[in-house]
Amino acid sequence: TPLCFVPGEDTHTSLHGSAVNVHIRLDRNSVTVEKTYITLSNLSTVTILNHSNVTARFQWKAFATQEEEDQLKQRFCHRLCQQENAQADNFLDWSRADTTRGERLSLLSHIYQNERAKVQGDPMLFFDDIFTIKPVEGEIWPNFSAEISVTFRPQEARVYKHTVYCDISGHETRLPLRLIGEGLGPRLRFLFEELDIGKVSVISLHRYKVSSRGWGGS
């Protein structure tokens, strides 16, 4: 709507707007993988549904918010600064007579600047030794879906639980996905329930063969 300005008069107008999340969701909020023996693996899937008319980009993350990622990056960068200062102090202690120490300190500073840049540029995609998600990032066309595979590889005989987060463009908050799996240890069973040795003479030696069957493992 055009506005009419009158010289010498103050003109005020109010602007209002609202933002909404794009219609993108997971087909479920948890994935329970079948019980799996140690050293083996099992696969399950989850689907990202894009019911909007825009192309969406997704990334699987280990943290629920961007703020948590930024805090972790700050801690990493702080450690790098401490390491750089310690190395610079040590270098100055033993290189007082070195005429090239200025150049070497400059090189040291450049190395740590590159390391900090790598930390800041890290997308912090989800990575885990037990649960693997593929693809860990990608795009979904309008009114399409993407099938995501979840691979479970237990290392111990216990229940594993982990929450990952799907960061989707056009969505204010990351979508949580609960991953659950149980690792099983090898199992052994005798092929008979009773072994009848019978009468045995004193100090005599007898040998018997016992058969068993195992499940699980490689």
From TrEMBL:
Signal peptide extent: none
Superkingdom to which the source organism belongs: Eukaryota
Any single GO CC term annotated in Swiss-Prot or TrEMBL for this entry: axoneme
Gene Ontology biological process terms from the UniProt entry: axonemal central apparatus assembly; cilium movement
Residue ranges occupied by any CFAP65 tenth Ig-like domain in the UniProt entry: 129-187
Cross-referenced InterPro entries: Hydin-like (IPR033305), Ig-like_fold (IPR013783), Ig_CFAP65_10th (IPR056305)
Protein name: Hydrocephalus-inducing protein homolog
Gene: LOC108510462
